[in-house]
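Example record

One chain of 91 residues, shown exactly as stored in the release files.
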Amino acid sequence: MRIKRLLQTAGLMLLFIVRRHGAASANKQSAASFKALRIEIKALKNFAVACEAYYRGTFNEAILLFEKALTHIPSDSLILDWLWAAITAPV
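Predicted structure tokens for this chain:
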């Protein structure tokens, strides 16, 4: 049982070292993709909160949040559609 556990630990350490070496060579590229992913997550959070505001009927808040989401992803057609729906919603 101890030998099996030792082999599993050694295998995981080897896997970690191999992955770490590969990640070090592409560090700049992964940092850029991580930054892009963080920006997209911020936009999706704003979009989700804006949709909730839209369904609550607080259209002014929804408009502000949709616009904030568009600052992160300016050409997203889904956000633009929801923004237009919030702007033209009957008060």
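Notes: Residues 54 and 83 are 9 Å apart (CA to CA).
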